[in-house]
Amino acid sequence: MLAVATAVFTYYTAWVFVLPFVDDSNALHSFFLPRDYAIKLPFLLLLLSGLGVATFIGKVLIKNAEKEKQKKSKKTE
Q1: Mind listing the pLDDT tens digit for each residue in 42-64?
Q2: Contacts for 22 with CB less than 8 Å, ≥ 6 apart
Q3: How far apart are CA 32 and CA 24, in angstroms?
Q4: pTM of the predicted model as reported, rounded to 2 decimal places
Q5: What distance in Å separates the CA atoms of residue 53 and residue 66, rounded to the nearest whole number?
Q6: How many domains, the chain?
Q7: Same domain for 41 and 71
Q8: What's the rounded Cα separation, in Å, for the pair 66 and 31?
C-alpha cells in the first residue's frame, strides 16, 4: 500500500508541478492525462469518500436506533 501511495503521489506531483514547465511537444506529455483532470479526479475522490463516510455513519445510527427500540420494548413487557 505504501508503494502504491508513493507512486500515486509521485505521478500527481509530476503531473501538477513539473508538467506545466515542459514543452507541449515533449513526449513526456503522452504519459499524463489532460491537466483539467488534475482538479476533477481529486474532487471526485473526495466526494465519493465523503459519501462513503456519511453512509457508514447513517447505517450505524440506524442500527443503534433499532437496538434502543428493542431495549425499550423489552422493558415495557
Answers
A1: 999 999 999 999 999 999 999 99
A2: 28, 29
A3: 12
A4: 0.70
A5: 20
A6: 2
A7: yes
A8: 52
Q: Cα(18)–Cα(15) distance, rounded to whole angstroms?
A: 6
Specify whether 25 is located in the same domain as 42. Answer: no
Supply 67's cell numbers: 437496538
**Averaged confidence pLDDT in the chain:** 92
User: What's the domain range around 4?
Assistant: 1-32
Same domain, 64 and 51: yes
Q: Is 32 exposed, middle or buried (0-12, 13-18, 19+ CB in 10 A)?
A: middle
User: What are 17's three cell numbers?
Assistant: 508541478
Distances (CA, A) of 47 to 3, 35, 41, 55: 24, 19, 10, 12
